Amino acid sequence: MPTVLFLNACLREEQSRSLRLARCFLDRYTALHPEDTIIERNLGRERIEPLYADTFAAQEALLEAGKTDDPVFALSHQFTSADKLVIAAPFWEQSFPSVLRIYFERISGKNLTFYYDADGVSHGLSRAKKCLFLTTRGGYFNTPETQWLEMGANQLKAICHGLHIPEFRCISADGLDIITNDVEQIMAEALERCVEEAEQF
Ligand SMILES: Cc1cc2nc3c(=O)[nH]c(=O)nc-3n(C[C@H](O)[C@H](O)[C@H](O)COP(=O)(O)O)c2cc1C
Fold first, then answer.
1. Count of CB atoms within 10 A of residue 12's CB?
2. 91 CA to middle of ligand 1, Å?
3. Out of 3.40.50.2300, 3.40.228.10, 3.40.50.360, 3.40.50.720, which CATH number does the structure's domain 3-200 have?
4. What are the strands of the beta sheet with 37-42, ordered from one edge?
5. Is 28's C-beta closer than 6 angstroms to any atom of ligand 1?
6. Are residues 18 and 70 in contact, defined by beta-carbon separation less than 8 angstroms?
7. pLDDT by residue (tens digit) across 12-67?
8. CA of 16 to the centre of ligand 1 (A)
């Protein structure tokens, strides 16, 4: 049965507009693919530890010894065995909440998410071929002039590239904190795109 891994980094929880996009997408996706298993990780609650000098060294030693089945790598194996990846996070400090960054730091690694072949070429170990990112932003960062300031979706796209996940898609609702904007109208348009995306994802 195909597995969809849903990384929820929406720290405002049920008030989160990014989470609203994700729930809309997943509701439609689940209706269309009742056989799929959706695994949700609530990164805002799980308190996944960042790597420190000692835990990094311990992890490196395990990998050096080929012990990739150690329980410390369970998150990595869950990640690589997912068929599709869905991420929801708000735009924070030009990027996304740090819990999401920590998650990727913890799952990534040689012989966990990628390996080098005899010629030194890197290959991915993830089953997932596509990732959908759902986000909302206070200002506008999806125009040609402001796009360079956007390090949330752009960073995730780069991370997916590094993880050999070739297709990265993003739905965003921008300008939600600009008081003259019609927030519900902007959200309605983004929610519509979520429904459309579910039809083809
Ligand atoms: C801690 C924090 C940092 C934020 N940083 C930015 C920012 O750098 N640029 C921006 O346009 N909006 C920023 N915002 C506004 C959010 O992107 C916006 O309100 C978004 O819709 C929140 O998503 P949510 O409803 O899913 O929590 C920030 C909000 C918070 C709470």
1. 12
2. 5
3. 3.40.50.360
4. 37-42, 3-8, 84-88, 130-136, 167-173
5. no
6. no
7. 999 999 999 999 999 999 999 999 999 999 999 999 999 999 999 999 999 999 99
8. 10
Kindly give the distance from the C-alpha atom of residue 74 to the centroid of ligand 1, in angstroms, as a whole number: 31
Whether 137 is in the pocket of ligand 1, judged by its Cβ within 6 Å, is: yes
Tell me the C-alpha distance between 68 and 197, whole Å. Answer: 35
Q: pLDDT tens digits for 108-126? A: 999 999 999 999 999 999 9
Segments making up each domain of the chain, as ranges: 3-200
What tens digit of pLDDT does each residue of 157-199 get?
A: 999 999 999 999 999 999 999 999 999 999 999 999 999 999 9
Torsions phi, psi for 162 (to 5 deg): -65, -30
pTM for the whole structure: 0.97
Which is nearest to 1 in space by CA: 34, 50, 48?
34
Which residue among 94, 137, 191 has the greatest number of ligand 1 atoms within 8 angstroms of its CB, and so is best to mutate? 137
- The one-letter code for the residue type at 32 is L
